[in-house]
Amino acid sequence: MGSKLVNTIIIVLSIIVASIIGGYKVDVNLVEVKMRNNSPFEGISSNNSLIQEIPIQGEMTVDCLDILFATYARMNTNTNTIKLYLNKDFITVLEIKSEVLGDNEYAKLDIAPLNLVKGDVLYLVIESIDAQSGNMVTVWINTESNYGQLYSLNNGEYIEQQGSLIYRLSQGTSLKSYVSNRFINLPDNLFVIILAVVIGLILKLVVDEVELLKVVKGGSNEINNSNTML
To answer: H or E element: which one contains 109?
Structure first.
């Protein structure tokens, strides 16, 4: 295969691979309460709902909500609702069936992009109208966190709770945008070009190494054949 053709193939492959890698979607956590001194909230039902206040401290756009659920290590069949309010105005309601939840695992909930500014307050309400004793789930609380007030709504009574729900608010973005904005402050397309160059150099080194091995092997065979003739 001619060297020009090999170089052309390397360039094309490098661009394709760099574009695929650069376009890969990643979730960037913008607001997060991490696991620390975890304690379970009481079972979530129509008589015991969770309300988490989330103060917004800067401008952001979020399109994903992760919540750390617990299933009591059993299969539950009830349906949970997650309601979002912005500054006490209703935004959306999401449903998630308990049977798809993993015990002590985050549930990923996609939401319509929500533009937030400093001073906004999100309210997250988790409840279940069909949960019963032995067929309900709960969520995990970070008892050390004080990021927004946590409440339980128990039989119509609002009760302040210690700690905060363990959750993540994030925005989905391409890997090229994330790396460019977070680490190297370059235009997205320039990052892809740099990545393509790096990939191309690696592929060229591999090809050159293969060609060198062929030459060495060919030379070795010639020596062996010469010795046989003697």
So the answer is: strand 105-116
Cβ neighbour number for residue 22 with a 10 Å cutoff = 21
Q: How far apart are CA 148 and CA 152, in angstroms?
A: 13
Residue 70 CA to residue 229 CA, distance in Å, equals 78
Question: Does residue 51 or residue 212 have the better pLDDT?
Answer: 51
Dump pLDDT digits (tens) for 148-199.
999 999 988 999 999 999 999 988 666 666 666 666 666 767 777 777 788 8
104-131 burial: b if 16+ Cβ within 10 Å, else e: eebbebeeeebebeeebebbbbbbbeeb
Look up tokens 């985050």; give the residue: 106
- Which residues are CB-neighbours of 145 under 8 A, at least 6 positions away? 33, 36, 163, 164
The Cα 19–Cα 168 span in angstroms is: 28
Among 123, 119, 112, smallest CA distance to 167 is for 123
Q: How many whole angstroms separate alpha carbon 31 and alpha carbon 194? A: 31
| CA distances for 103 relative to 26, 76, 100, 164, angstroms | 24, 11, 10, 19
Euclidean distance between CA atoms 82 and 101, whole angstroms: 14
Q: What is the pLDDT of residues 88-115, one digit of tens each?
A: 899 999 999 999 999 999 999 999 999 9
Decide if domain 26-173 falls under CATH 2.60.120.
yes
121 DSSP β-pair partners: 55
pTM: 0.70
